[in-house]
Amino acid sequence: MLIEGIAYVGAVRAKLPVYIYDRSSEQIKKSLALMDKLLSKEVTKGNIQSTEAKEARDRVTIVGEEGVKGFRDLDMVVEAASENVALKLSLFKSLAQEMRPDAILASNTSSISITKIAAAAIAEAYQLAEGVSPSSEQGKQSAGRVVGLHFFNPVPVMGVATRDDIDTTLKLGMNHPMGPLTLADFIGLDTCLAIQRVLYDGTGDSKYRPSILLERMVDAGWLGKKSGKGFYDYNQS
């Protein structure tokens, strides 16, 4: 349900044109049948109108025998093949060769190194065997096109957690006295950012790289409880 789920969210919720490719024509039929079923259910529940369902379905195009060549003019592709290293590397080599240099190549992998996938894309796009280095500007640009974009299954019913969802989950599930976002507000977001920077500078480990969101909040003066606003608003009566 992963491929059709991603396509469904793109066509129905994001209202974007979606192109689907699978080597198995039988899988394509199953995917379209499931999408039709989901759309029908949404109409029955009154969540969308029948006209909206038809518009969403019309946004979906099946890529035929041309395969990845059918993605040449697209801005972004999301790969959702099975967790097979050789298969994914082969796919990304083809995608890097066929798609525009500025197109984003995203993988839904949950276990394979994005760096390894990006290296395959670089090798194909810039033919490293002929002397283009991964550290060159060309190499960096190619690697920067490759991102990890993991969708949890089933995609259509997975939502985005709110700050309260995150804090409540940790309090109830891990028996923490307060959630991590509330705790960060009490510590001070500027202090949290400073700690992350020290850890990242000292170790070089990407898991300590400061969050862009945290940096923006500190720049805005949202430092947590001491400033009256952080992840939560403490100025509300």
TrEMBL record:
Keywords attached to this entry: Oxidoreductase
GO molecular function, one term: oxidoreductase activity, acting on the CH-OH group of donors, NAD or NADP as acceptor
GO biological process, one term: fatty acid metabolic process
3-hydroxyacyl-CoA dehydrogenase C-terminal domain location: 159-234
Species per Swiss-Prot/TrEMBL record: Rhizoctonia solani
Identification of the protein by name: 3-hydroxybutyryl-CoA dehydrogenase
Domain 3-hydroxyacyl-CoA dehydrogenase NAD binding: 4-121
InterPro entries for this protein: 3-OHacyl-CoA_DH_NAD-bd, 3HC_DH_C, 6-PGluconate_DH-like_C_sf, 6PGD_dom2, NAD(P)-bd_dom_sf
